[in-house]
Amino acid sequence: MNWLNSGAFTLFGQRIIWSDMTGNILGLITLALGWRRSLWTWPVQFLSGLVLFAAFYGHLTGSAGKQAVVMAVALYGWWQWRRSQGRAEDGHIAPRFATWRERAAMLGAAAAGTVAVALLFTAYPSLSWDPWPDAYIFVGTIVAMYAQAKGMVEFWIAWLLVDLVGVPLNFANGYAFSGFVYVIYGALVLWGMRDWWLRSRRSPQPVLEGVPA
């Protein structure tokens, strides 16, 4: 898989590598499919993680491990959306706003997870080149994917918060293509958030498991 880490082309003086380009193009497709509430968003997300895992495996163990977690959450999202299909009139998952309890739980998990992962990255420097921002992006991505799996509008907000750190971090670490893609992510996130927001107001709220009617 050495070709994945070879240069594809140069853009604005920055060397673009194949794995960075391929993984992030798939990430863009994933986000676009998520906006459309297509079940295919999850297989494409899994494929994106697989490409990056193959690129990192063997020399960036920590990065490969993070992609393994992303792939596991993508499988969970696939299972969750398949189970939830048919709850909206158009046959796709019905967007909804999270409850205050769910928001508090996600914020708490994001904060605690970021601290725990950053401390892990700090203790083992080989896992990350920039522990705290890297931990924030990694945990934020997992929280966003979990919220997406649950059909929560807030998943777009989580992605936007990840982008705010991801764009400068990727440029600073030489991943120019990732930086450019994250800028496009931001536009897609705003568009997708508006669409899910409007749909959540038009559509009947889905029945939440374990919550009495």
UniProtKB/TrEMBL annotation:
It is a multi-pass membrane protein. It is found in: Cell membrane. The keyword Signal does not apply. The keyword Aminoacyl-tRNA synthetase does not apply. Pfam families: NMN_transporter (PF04973). It comes from the Bacteria. The chain crosses the membrane at residues 16-35, 42-60, 104-124, 136-162, 174-193. Keywords: Cell membrane, Membrane, Transmembrane, Transmembrane helix, Transport. Its main location: membrane. Belongs to the nicotinamide ribonucleoside (NR) uptake permease (TC 4.B.1) family. This is Membrane protein. It comes from Streptomyces incarnatus.
